[in-house]
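S.,

Sequence below, as promised.
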Amino acid sequence: MLKEKFKKYFSIQNSIEKNLYTMGTLCEANENLKKDYSSIIHNDNTCRTQIIDNNNSFMFKLLTKLSENNIDVLVNTSFNISKDPMVFDLFDVYVNMRRMSIEYVVMNTGIFKVKEI
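The prediction came back faster than expected:
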């Protein structure tokens, strides 16, 4: 999510805010998140959150466009099949997109559609 949207949905100690840039901490969900995005909250009322503030990045531009349409949260999920290793490179991206019938993937460099090779 965009950095300026974070406090609308979460509370966290200022001393650990730097961890939000790398999804390095859990954040307590507040009532706004429960109302607008309840399905992304863990059972213990937390979320692993990442904030973006680099206005030159693709993700910042995407989140800004989504925010203009009243969408403040983009959900990131694991991109590997259970018991498989993490996706490591573009070959793994392609293989997992095919295996999981994923048509599009969003990465730091853009939105990509799977193609036949």
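The chain has a mean pLDDT of 88.

Coffee later?
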